[in-house]
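Incident log, structure service

09:12 report received: a user says their structure output differs between two submissions of the same chain.
09:20 pulled the input from the user's history:
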Amino acid sequence: SDRHRQSNERFERCRFRYAAPLVWGEMDYFQHLNNCHYYRYCESARVAHFAFLEQQPGLAGFCSPTGLGPIIGESGLRFKAAATFPDVLTVGVHVTDIGDTSFREHYFMWSEAMQRVCAEGFAEVVVVDYGSGKRARVPEELRAALQQLHSSNREIEHRGVVGKFVLDAPPFMP
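09:34 re-ran on a clean worker, output below:
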């Protein structure tokens, strides 16, 4: 259908990807990936994305529990097909709507077994000053790194902590 094709196209355009095998213990009674684990795969992709960003100039320590760092203000998922064991989910991450104090991460979960997106999600990431407990402005270094990564032709794929770079990915089109 058009919706599946659009989801697959959006996944293909994601610059940052995190891949992980499904674990048997994550299956529910019906042998599908339990719905709470889709959130965990998004979380793992988000943490890997932040770890990558912390390696960029001026962002070392961005995720420090005493300084500036991210917190999730809102999140959601839409399920498109049930993932089952064995499989590898690759979560494509794309950032939009970089504002004064927050930005939005979009997640597209690709099932290797089904060769399609099986879920889409999002998280509103708010920058917080953990020292004061209040919202903070998105640092210019973070804004620049997000804009460069998510508008460039460079693609980063993480499998655990090892990454590889693939060039010439097409630009993201919302």
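09:41 both user submissions now match this output. Likely a transient worker issue. Closing.
09:42 reviewer note: The CA atoms of residues 6 and 174 lie 10 Å apart. The first helix runs from residue 2 to 12.
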